[in-house]
Each structure stands twice: as structure tokens, then as C-alpha cells.
Amino acid sequence: METRGIGDMFDFRRFPKDAVVLLLLLVYFPVGVCLMLIRISVGLHVFLVSCALPESFVRRCIVRIMCSVLGMHVRQTNPRSRDRSTKLYTSNHVTEFDHNVLNLLTPCNTPQLEGSTGFVCWARGFMEIRSASGREAIGETLQRYCLADGTPPLLLFPEEDTTNGRSGLLKFSSWPFSLTDSIQPVALRVTRPLIALNTPESGWLMELLWTFFVPCTVYHVSWLPPVSRQEGESTAEFANKVQELLAGELGLVSTKITKADKAEYVKRKRHAAPQAGASNSGVRPSSIGLGFMVQSLGTDERRMAKMAQQVKDVLPHVPLSVITKELAKTNCVDGTITNLLENKEETQMEASGASNFGSSRSSFYSSGPAPTPQPAAKSFGKSPVDRHLSLQDRKDALYNFARRRYIEKHGLDQEDSH
User: By CB neighbour count within 10 A (0-12 exposed, 13-18 middle, 19+ buried), where does 62 fall?
Assistant: First the structure.
């Protein structure tokens, strides 16, 4: 179930599929662009205010109000459950700005484990770990940080990557749970109209612009009671326990899918589209629609489309609609070829009705001279044996004609075809 659900945990489309929502988005688009430009200017002021004012309750209130102007609304439930003595908060990860939002509610530091460093790291609100190299060194540095007095709590995201927040939680990494024996889980729900919250291949700057574009993004923060590690409980078991607790609070599935699994899945998705485009570039125009149909339909439909392509290879001038209609009756490639050759005149009438240029062809099955079989018997046999022989002769003539068409199409020799 987890393998099937990995695609449901991430949004690869920025815009919705629903036609009504797309229409609303199209109408809103000019307003969104103007709103984004205004919020970029306001955002610069928010950054300057957050840098100028010292860390305090007043600063957090002012920045929180200004962030509401930017479209980032923050709501919290169970604030009394927040334990001020706890040195580690753990939360699920939905957007690139989760740590900024939680920092509006309470002072906390989130270390930058990977990505940009220096000014960009500081401007985004991360705590840079300069002396640490490797996961073990980072763990030792953060463990010393948690033991120090007077430092704000740490905020870590054990998923280590974002999801869409609707389907499930990535498997929690166990190393954050080795820092302290008591942590406070934080459940985070994020909602946004019109467009997706994030896409796997979009950077934080692009996500910020989309945040400014939409009317609002609402962050719902729920504080859960602190959880302590029991005696004899390993860090992996402790991590699984907290993961199950957060999944139950959010109404999501606790999966075993890791950050590496997401990266591999995104990589496959990235290479699937170019390969599909490259494979279709060498297909003749009459088969492009069939190739799309094969990819988008179910198992039975794919099998039917494959059979239709086999018939199309032998009878290239028969429209796919006629072939598909006949296959629905026979469910057999050979039977379909036989019926189409037997009912040549009826098939030609159907093709001329389906195509504007079909009636202008002098010959429906070939553009050049080709031997035409005479499948119909001269008279109806009086005995079953005569009728069987007549039918067999007609089938042999039809198969020989189809074989010659195949040889001519692929430029084969008569001897090679045996």
C-alpha cells in the first residue's frame, strides 16, 4: 500500500485538474500578479523589521501581523500544551517556511543541515552549523546545544523533506530523537486555495513567489503534549512512536517511505516524460493517437490498442476507428484482418465517412497495384465438406494477401519470410 501511495504524497502539478478551479485561477491571475508585486515590497519591510528588532514577544506579534499581509496566516490550538522546558520540537514538514511560521509563535532555532550557507541561510531564518561535518558531528553539536542553558529550543523536521500534507508522513529519521529524552511534537496543517502547496522540483524562492501570488496560505499549528523516551526504548522505536502520534493527530498514514525514496521517485518521474516524448518522435502520425491511448488506458484497453496497432501494420490505410470497432466484435487480430478484407467495400464506406480524404483514394488498401484476393466463393456449397473447403480456400487467399502486404511494407524477400 505504501508503494502505491508514494505518488499521492507529492504534487507534481502546480495547477489543479478541475476545469472550474482552472477557470477561477485564470480570472484571478491578473489580481494575483499585482498582489505578488505589492507583497514583494512589503516582504522587504518585514525582513528589515525582523532584523532591526530584538527577539521578543512584541517583535513576534509585529512580524506575525505583517506576515498576514503577505498572505501567511498562522493559527494555533492547544497553546497551553507547549512545555517551555522542552529543548526539542519535532514537526511534520509541508512547506519551505514551516520553521519561520513556528518561530512566529515561540522562539526556536532550526539548523540548516544542507543547502545554502552564509547570508542566504541566515536570511531564511536557519541556524548555520559551521564546525559540523557529517551526521554524527551534527548530532554531537546539537546535543551540546540542547544541554546548554538559556538557548531557545531546537525545531527539527524528522521527515527531512516536504510532502503535500494530505496523504501520509515520510519515515522519521531516528537521529533527532537521540538528542534529548523528551521532545514536543507539533502537528502542522497547511491549506491554500487554487494551487498546490509545493512541487518537488521547485526551489524556495519560487515557492515564496507563489505564496505571495495566492490570496492566502493558512498554517494550523497544534501543540501535542511532550513525549519522553521510555527506559530500554531505542531511538528508532522512539521515532516510530512519535511518528504514529503525529500521524494520528493529522489523520494521515504513517509510512516507511524515506527521503531517498522520494528522491528516486522524483528522478523516475523526471526522466519518464522525456523518454515518452523521444519514443513518440519516431512514430508515424497515424500511430501517435494510438500511443497516447496505450499509455492512458487500463490493462484491457492497452491490450486492445496493441492489437489494433498489429492490424494497422498489415492494413495501414484502414482508420483506427474502423479497426477498433471490428476488434470489439472479434477480439482477434487474424479475425479482424479477415473481416476487414472480406468486407472491403463496407469498410471503405466507413473510412470515407470518417475521413475527408478517404474517398479520393483509388484503392483503399494500397497506393500502388497489388494483387486482390477473391475471398468469396462462386456458389454456396451443397454439402458441409464443400462449404468447409470453400471457407478454407478463402482464408488461405486472405492470409496470403495479408502476408504479401506485410512483406511489401517491410521490404522483405519472399525467402526470408518463411
Answer: middle
What's the mean per-residue pLDDT of the chain?
A: 79
- Specify whether 305 is located in the same domain as 214: no
pLDDT tens readout for residues 362-414: 333 344 444 444 444 444 455 554 555 566 676 677 777 777 777 776 666 55
The C-alpha cell 505578488 sits at 36
pTM of the complete model: 0.63
Query: 124-128, 166-170, 283-287: lowest mean pLDDT where?
Result: 283-287
Closest CA to 158 of 139, 137, 132: 139
Asked whether residue 106 falls in the same domain as residue 181, the answer is: yes
Task: State how far the Cα of 168 lies from the Cα of 10, in Å rounded to an integer.
Answer: 10
Q: Rounded to the nearest 5 degrees, what angle is found at the Cα of 20, between the Cα atoms of 16 and 25?
A: 60
Whether 96 and 18 map to the same domain: the answer is yes
Please identify which residue in the block is written with the cell numbers 528508532.
Answer: 236
Residue 231: what residue type?
A: E
List the domain range (segments joined by +) for residue 115. Answer: 2-268
Pick from 268, 300, 332: which residue ends a domain? 268
Q: Are the C-beta atoms of residues 281 and 33 closer than 8 Å to each other? A: no
Instruction: Confirm if 8 and 1 have CB atoms less than 8 A apart.
Output: no
Q: Are residues 53 and 85 in the same domain?
A: yes
Residues 68 and 182 in one domain: yes
In this structure, the answer to whether residues 101 and 248 fall within a common structural domain is yes
- What are the DSSP calls for 229-259, one per residue? PPTT--HHHHHHHHHHHHHHHHT-EE----H
pLDDT given for residue 348 in this prediction: 57
| Contact of 303 with 318, CB cutoff 8 Å | no
Comparing 108-112, 238-242, 253-257, 411-415, which segment has the lowest mean pLDDT? Answer: 411-415
Rounded CA-CA distance 146/76 in Å is 25
Q: Measuring CA to CA, which residue among 193, 157, 201 is closest to residue 176? A: 157
Provide the 10 A C-beta neighbour count for residue 82.
19
